[in-house]
Design brief:
The chain is an all-alpha fold. Helices cover 81% and strands 0% of the residues. The longest helix has 33 residues, at 2-34. The protein starts with a helix and ends with a helix.
Length: 52
């Protein structure tokens, strides 16, 4: 039972790390839009994903 709990903890950490990477990419895309070089979506759409 203890073995499974540590695995779950590692999966949670991996999920959090991936979520942080996505958030950083969204922030970079928002900054690119403000500079007129954005490629994906609009600023309101990107901000909506960050709030989720």
């Amino acid at each position: 039972m203890v073995y499974n709990e540590s695995r779950r903890f590692n999966k949670n950490l991996n999920y959090i790390k991936k979520a942080e990477k996505v958030k950083m990419k969204l922030d970079c895309e928002i900054k690119a839009h403000k500079l007129g070089k954005g490629k994906d979506g609009t600023v309101p759409q990107l901000k909506k994903y960050i709030k989720i």
